């Protein structure tokens, strides 16, 4: 199984998520993670969909099917090497009175994670990184009892110098804000 | 008194009105109908109901500019619009209400997308403030139709209507055609537009840009393969008809002398009389076309998508051959069969570009190979089917007799099943745009409504529908539409009292365990008479000619029931999972 990151640029209208996911559902492809946000261009959304698949050919066919959705401007399929990517994770970690205190220095310096909220009996730690880095930190902090753990989906940009505008030169794009 | 004085001093009332006249504002419903008129729509196939009543009220005012045919079930509206679109090349339009009206369209929309048929379905919806409240006849029709439409959109304000309708028509008919659904909330139908109604046809969209003209490099690469091939083979698909490429195809065939076969929906694009026409491809196609698919050295596929009914086992399909694939939908390239030379673009433009690049050639010996297989098929299957010794009439002889009587030039519809395959085999199509059937979805009940849709689209042509007794009962109520509209559609029921194709499979692959395939049928002719449609039952061979003559002579709708052999099978046949060259003759 290879991880593929599919970046879909669409017009920002109601229901596009449904139009895209139905294409994956029909082909029994499970979504590992999904993020959606507006791009640097007004009215243009960017979907970052992470899937795992055995067949590159099947992923290429999937990309072509997604391109057929009328509101879709462009679709790119990437391997991990093609992109810079990251996720954010939040850990709610138990710190009851009398327990072994958490080692803030190690958390900051070794794991590049930050405490974003302090409570009497717990802290919330934010860790940014790849899936692998986040799970390394997960293993480190686990002995302190993780009360809650959440990961965002992957966000990714390609390492290619080309931008969306290079693929759609005739479109008149307005920068966001 | 003052009031009166003032009035006498001012300019006449009529002039005042003219001076400050604001443009007349129309409501959303009028905007819908005026948009349809702007798009050149002549006929709407529809059925009214609560959430679409404002639009129906508007149609009342435009009856001199636009026709409306009242179907008996919304599925009939969708298939009629498909029949109309398929025969005319124009966009078929349906108008229905929300909830069940919309869901009844679903089968027709699914049929249209898989057979690349342009439809615009205008659907009523509950008022915007009621969306999501489970209001009466509220259904999430946008959600339901996402996977089966080329595009869908919900309009909640009257002002959106002209632009969205223009977009709908552009998307439906351009590129690879398909169905578009526009859901319009009732408040948008009722409210006045805030500005004057103006209409501008849509000509392009940023996000949707179908490639019409293929890339020169792709065409050159295709021409090179074509010029080098010793045993090239052309596959004619539906795309040839859709892009009106029949003439260009003919020139291409004649210059290169390459044999050409057709898919189910490609039938009639090349006349059966043409010396290079070698027959039909696929599961019940011809012997030679299937066997030689696995012997040719180049496939030139034009506007077709290598459906599994064409390829059989794709792992043993034409592995020896290179493939030139001319196709407007890039997602079809390499979807099933790898293309050595893809040509993405409109078939007509691609053939125009290819023509000067391909060399004149002769493939007489190669074409003669097909004829050898034809001789075997003729002896083992075709002749026994056409001149049977059985007591009961066979489907093939009905179809061929009609073919001869109409000189192969009628618009022929077939429903789904054995009679469909028999129609494809035995009607001798000589005029392009003559065969309309549900290919991809295989929708039983398609032919009756599609037939009157086709008659609307081609009023000057003879329209004949072959329908099985099972299929007929799926949309039988559309006899009412035919009777009311008076459209002189000729309907032939090939009645074998069975769901014949399922029975055939049960016989061949399920040890004759006939599970729920025998039908107790009503008296179809009496039913027809009840609707006011004249008819006749033909049960003996001696009566066949006279029955068909009487049907063709009628200038009204006519229902002919032919009682045919109960347990006949369609052959040749490529069983599911077999490869095309393992086609069975018995």
Short description, anyone?
By secondary structure, chain A is an alpha+beta fold. Chain A is built from five helices and nine strands.
Structure description:
Chain B: GO terms for molecular function: acetolactate synthase activity. Chain B: Its EC number is 2.2.1.6. Chain B: Pathway: Amino-acid biosynthesis; L-isoleucine biosynthesis; L-isoleucine from 2-oxobutanoate: step 1/4; Amino-acid biosynthesis; L-valine biosynthesis; L-valine from pyruvate: step 1/4. The complex is a heterodimer of chains A (177) and B (586). With 177 residues, chain A is α+β, with helices and mostly antiparallel strands. Chain A folds into two domains: 2-83 and 156-167, Alpha-Beta Plaits; 84-151, ACT-like. Chain A, domain 2 (Alpha-Beta Plaits). Chain A has five helices and nine strands; from the N terminus they run E-H-E-E-H-E-E-H-E-E-H-E-E-H. The longest helix of chain A is centred in the middle third of the chain and has 12 residues, at 56-67. Chain B has 586 residues and is of the alpha/beta class. Chain B has three domains: 28-190, 3-Layer(aba) Sandwich (Rossmann fold); 216-369, TPP-binding domain (Rossmann fold, 3-Layer(aba) Sandwich); 391-564, Thiamin diphosphate (ThDP)-binding fold, Pyr/PP domains (Rossmann fold, 3-Layer(aba) Sandwich). Chain B is built from 24 helices and 18 strands. In chain B, helix 5 (74-88) runs parallel beside helix 6 (100-114), helix 12 runs parallel beside helix 15 and helix 17 packs across helix 18 (418-426). The longest helix of chain B is centred in the middle third of the chain and has 23 residues, at 364-386. Residues 1-12 of chain B have low confidence and may be disordered. Classes of the chains: A alpha+beta (177), B alpha/beta (586).
